[in-house]
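Case study 2.
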Amino acid sequence: MPDAVAGLLRAWSVPARRPVDIIWECGTPPFPVEVLPYGGWLPEHRGNDPDHHRGIHHETHKLWHDHLDEHRARFASYMRQVQRGWPDRTTVADFLERRTAELNASEPPAPDLDQLLEPTYRHHHEIGPNSSELIGLGATATCGWIDPAAVANVGYRRWNNFGGHRPDAVSALLTALLDISVEEALGVWSLAEEPICVQRIPGPTGPLYTLGENGAHRLTTARLASLPGIWATVDQPALPLQVHPHQTGIHGDDAARQLLTCWRCLLARDLVAGHIDEDSRWPSLSTLHLDDAAAIWLLATPKQAIAWAATYNRVYPGALEALDITPEAYADERAWATWLAAAP
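Prediction:
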């Protein structure tokens, strides 16, 4: 719908809350007579898009090969940086053991926010309304080189802790950066054929990323090797229209009351815009109608929020202080709650 376009594109703004101006070269589109089901297709829906399955993944291979020489040269330069920085007389196994321990100690993965990042329509549907009442603004996508240091989470609680899931993959990927030609290394990393997929999480100065559909081992290797960049498909969902306490992973009305207090303080500090429909009897059924947010992770529980704040400050030093979120504010959960309660 025309009115949704600004909400979708604004998510790409830096800073995240900067408004966007939409210029319709063909004139403002009219409101559609038929609205496609969310995602473009539902069984027997009269508005189905026969080409709904095509998207950014269909174009990734072409976008890579249209600029193949440039991408090859860039990846080769990253390989050389890894090779030049490789410590003397160090095996791949020794490097991975040491670097994994360092990264988990100093830059642990941020907590999972998958439920908080999900589109509104899913949660609406799970609660009861039928498919005709699905709501959500959708998502946009692109592909390009991203900074692996901004990858906050790849779906595991610790870096390089895949258990029995392709346990030798990280070692093989790192070895490819050190010992073979750029063509062979690109074959091992398979950046165009099996693109890494990440989800972009906007913030006040720049984005963080979490794992999308594919690429946990390659993103982990990129982090461990300190690669300056990695080619990926980037999905950018719009902010959810509604947020419910259970999306932060909490259970029970006492925890919901505490979270609602945090949300009210975020609203008072103008870090979040919207309003709360509070259910006084069952706080866990309350709803935040979300218009805007400096960062979606601010709506998480204090334990999650301080971890994301620390990650954000590492990637973008000083950016949070511009919002009056000092390191003391996210030193621990109690400090976070105290800082929020001191809202003007």
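The beta strands are 139-146, 151-153, 196-201, 208-211, 230-237, 242-243, 272-277, 287-293.
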